[in-house]
Amino acid sequence: MSFSRIYDQAAARKGGEVALRSLLPKVAGSGELQAMADDRYLSEITRCVFKAGFVWRVIENKWPGFEAAFQGFVPLYWQQVPPEVLEDLAQDERIVRNMQKIRTVPENARMIVDAARDHGSFGAFLGNWPSEDQVGLLLWLKRNGTRLGGNTAQYFLRRVGWDGFILSPDVVAGLRREGLLDATPGSKKALVQAQQAFTDWHRETGLPYSHLSRILSYSVGD
Fold this sequence. Notes:
15 helices
């Protein structure tokens, strides 16, 4: 099914093509992803983990405190941090004191360090993973990281500029409207169906996956 009608719907809802294009997310090239330091990846993963199921605005407002409390999120330090450091963080008022989420930092730090050992850096690992296999990347992050299931990893990838879709409620509604998704959101089948739809649209339009995802969402909601 042609994407042009979806594009026109989104443009009409957003006040025209120029307005629509101004709302599209930034897509990082492979070189930009590789240039981003591994501590920034751990920071963004942690930010998305803490936002999941919480008020995003609170996390954003407290984020400078998170950066200070976690000492810049250096993966080599956090992968082997002493337990008492985590216990102290659970009492630290600069952050949201959720011990289950605090414990994800060393575990996700180990994931980053392991990937960097094999690929040179975590950014190089991401930069070399093709957008037409986002499903594989999401499954890898869920398998090797902690609390990176659901949409958390999708939002992390969007924040760092990796070119992929997000199965937000509006995107799910758009895919269902087009008859391209009949699986339960969050299931592997739903991811595969979404991947196929966005890959087909990417081949048709040449637009980045992130832009296709955002445009589809705007054709449904605000």
